[in-house]
């Protein structure tokens, strides 16, 4: 694989949110000189409406299949990108980085990897719509607007939370949640990431301080798992932000923080030069 003078960024969404929620990020990163894309998970349709109408394509899709899906996309492109993932997308981003498929990764409020022991009540409650029924491991499950409001929109007023639900919420496969919940009890868990031996590009982990789905305590534990590793890992806290931070009214602040970190790491984009027309 190669790298180019114009770096590529691959955005990966998490459970219950369609990849089109990354559209404002794609526009921003493109304006900053990146080649930006946000392909969906295996089984996602091209639009929110189409995914809601036919969610069965995601039935029984698990972490390993999602990782392989993005590995195949990267291999087909022939270019090692930067990867930015939110929630379960943040876990996938760490997998891709540890396997040297990407040059750097940003994991925004990432789903916990194997080895994390913290299990706050709000995290349990957020996963309850899926985990309450073992049969959901093979199903695709949708959240109600109220469940979405607790898991994603708790830092927002109800009108904004409902608007995000209407715009971007889609059903999600149950298998990744079950795989993550049982990771510490499985020797070969698909949620395992090499935090100690992998020589890889830089990683930024972030937390929103009022996130219900992935509380900051969980991501701090992830950060601590990397403490003895040979490669660069950093941690950033977004005060007052919940799990909706990549798509709510404050998304640009989160995006700019990511851009600043990439710039510090020598991975800034290369904006096209501005052409000035001289008129006689």
Helix content: 25-40%
* C-alpha termini separation: 48 Å
The neighbouring-strand order within the major sheet is 2-1-3-4-7-8
Number of E-type strands: 8
Low-confidence stretches: 274-280
What is the name of the CATH superfamily?
Alpha/Beta hydrolase fold, catalytic domain
Account of the 3D structure:
The protein has 280 residues and is of the alpha/beta class. The protein has one domain: Rossmann fold, CATH 3.40.50. Helices cover 36% and strands 12% of the residues. The protein is built from 10 helices and 8 strands. The strands form 2 sheets. It has a 6-stranded parallel β-sheet, with helices on both faces. Helix 1 links the parallel strand 1 and strand 2. The longest helix has 15 residues. The protein is globular, with a radius of gyration of 18 Å. It starts with 7 loop residues before the first strand and ends in a 16-residue tail after the last helix. The C terminus is likely disordered.
């Amino acid at each position: 694989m190669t790298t180019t003078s114009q770096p590529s960024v691959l955005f990966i969404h998490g459970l219950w949110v369609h990849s089109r929620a990354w559209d404002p990020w794609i526009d921003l990163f493109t304006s900053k000189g990146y080649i930006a894309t946000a392909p969906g998970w295996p089984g996602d349709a091209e639009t929110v409406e189409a995914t809601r109408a036919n969610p069965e394509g995601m039935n029984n899709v698990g972490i390993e299949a999602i990782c392989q899906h993005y590995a195949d996309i990267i291999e087909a492109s022939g270019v090692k990108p930067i990867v930015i993932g939110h929630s379960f997308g943040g876990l996938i981003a760490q997998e891709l980085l540890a396997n040297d498929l990407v040059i750097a990764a940003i994991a925004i409020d990432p789903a916990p990897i194997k080895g994390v022991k913290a299990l706050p009540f709000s995290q349990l409650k957020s996963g309850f719509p899926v985990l309450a029924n073992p049969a959901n491991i093979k199903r695709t499950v949708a959240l109600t607007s109220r469940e979405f409001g607790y898991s994603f929109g708790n830092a927002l007023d109800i009108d904004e939370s409902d608007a995000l639900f209407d715009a971007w919420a889609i059903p999600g496969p149950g298998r990744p949640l079950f795989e993550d919940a049982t990771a510490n009890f499985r020797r070969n868990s698909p949620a395992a990431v090499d935090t100690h031996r992998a020589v890889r590009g830089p990683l930024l982990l972030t937390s929103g301080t009022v996130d219900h789905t992935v509380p900051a305590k969980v991501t701090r534990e992830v950060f601590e798992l990397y403490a003895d590793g040979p490669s660069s890992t950093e941690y950033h806290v977004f005060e007052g932000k919940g799990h909706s931070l990549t798509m709510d009214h404050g998304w640009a602040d989160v995006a700019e923080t990511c851009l600043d970190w990439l710039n510090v790491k020598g991975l800034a984009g290369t904006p096209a030069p501005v052409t000035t027309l001289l008129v006689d």
